[in-house]
Specification:
single chain; about 600 residues; alpha+beta; 8-stranded mixed β-sheet; 5-stranded mixed β-sheet; binds adenosine-5'-diphosphate; binds magnesium ion
Length: about 600
Amino acid sequence: MRKIHLLPDEVAQKIAAGEVIERPVSVVKELVENSLDAGATEVRIELVDGGKSLIKVQDDGAGMDREDAALCFRRHSTSKIAGEEDLERIATLGFRGEALASIAAVSRLTLRTFDGAGDRGTMIEREGERLVAVTDIAFPRGTMIEARDLFFNLPARRKFLRSGQSELGPVAKYVTQAALGAPGVRFTLVHGGRETIGCPPVATLRERVFQLFGKKMVDGLMEVAAEDGEGRIEGLASLPLAGRADKSVQHFFVNGRPVKDRVLMAALSQAYTGILERGRSPEAFLFLRLPFADVDVNVHPAKSEVRFKDTQMVFRLVLRAVGEGAARGHTIKEVVPGGGHPTAPSGVAESGAAYEARSLDLGFGLPDVAGTSPTGAAGGDMPLEARDRPGGPSPRYVSPSSTASPAPSGQGPVVLGQYGNMYIVAAGEEGLLVIDQHNAHERVLYEKYREIDRMKLWPRKVLLIPPVLDLPPGAAAMLEENAALFEDLGFRVEAMGGRSYALKEYPDVYRQEEAGDIFLGLLEEAGRKPAEERRGHMLATMACKSAIKAGEPLTREKMGYLVDELFKTSQPALCPHGRPIVVRVERSTIDKGLGRK
Ligand code: ADP
Ligand code: MG
């Protein structure tokens, strides 16, 4: 007996609609995209009961003539692409010709539209698959679509809709995103008669962010931009030390299309390692421009995901844009009377200026290590190198004789002394700096190591009698997976059978006794980090392990050198793990406390 039959059109439409239209926000998204594609300068969205009873979107775009208005509800009807070759260069938000068909299939829909030609517009009323009426109407140029009673003919779907208020949340979020993508367009979102979002047109992204998020957010953002071949990125992102506790404000656009993308998110979080304090995430509004052929937007029915041809290039763009931005805007945590720290970004903007000029000329990861540096390669005579630990006694407390200390360049902070064998106290232009010696050295080494890594120049020590390491269960697989990475980082191990491995070579910045433990620690860490962030984290750990420790007495020379190097890094305020390095006691605070002002 035959079992297969073709589904009735109506059922097929409903099934297809379900892919594109999941809840009110999906309708809003498709309609707003159409308005933007039609060149609107004004988009007004109105909802009743979170869109469950009514979603209305009106624009002042190009509108449609009578014929197009009748056609637009057909599945795969679109004015945006004509043939297969157009799929390679999609410049509009829509192109699948499915949205109106889908929305019409699952709601009671009224379309009003006028393209400005002739004197009458068109009104079309539909109910699910049924055409109810086509009428001549007087209507201004543009389009208005009302979708009522979403899923009225799909009770199972309707049951899944949440309360009006909870459906509104995602809609507001989407409209926010659309508004970020088009600052020149007026956006209004009205819910139950109340205006929830209202953004008059503005000239810049910064102004749009201000309208949507307020001044505090804008003050914590820096401009970022970078280019790589035909790729380009620009936008706004958190200043160093700013950011927030969650990832809720990260907006990415690829060729004008808002996207959720794992690659971009990972690149952003990597770019901010060591720029934000631990546990904080950046805010970002990033606009990526790529040749149309280098990005596939046709991978998801709602078009919210994309696929990049060259993910490495995308990664580089984000890293470079943020890195260069951060190098311009680095900043130091300030100590305020009363013990609290001003929360970033309030203390951020003005404090970045002091050392700006010096960090700029070094830039982000410019080669000054591994042979080319006057201070020598990492494995050679780096004055603060781990094996080169100072033996003799050093000043333990702050000495007031600032003149005695070496200040090689004459511009940076001047070292006054060491405090508690942990902190370097220095006089900066605007006040006293207390610098955590371990964190500072970690930052300096991290940047050097990154450079060494980039140039694949790890100095190695070859062990004649290699220690045998017993890997914990599971670690062997991890080692296998990361063999190339460890090799890059200067470690070479050889399988001895079972879980035993011989450590043949290690990067020559460690003492022989510690190399094995460091290797095991890195291996363990590799298992905890996602692949794309591994290298950065491991370099940070390698820096941490070879940095001078808290509790170690330091000579003047070493302190002078360290402070000097620190302020040449891209981010002297935070160690690569996101712990603060420097606090500053403002001159004015001291003056005030001592009754001088
Ligand atoms: P797509 O956007 O993928 O082309 P849609 O189903 O969303 O498919 O829309 C079908 C067509 O209807 C569009 O290509 C466009 O020509 C027309 N259209 C839809 N909405 C509008 C609008 N707001 N203004 C002008 N034309 C519109
Ligand atoms: Mg569309």
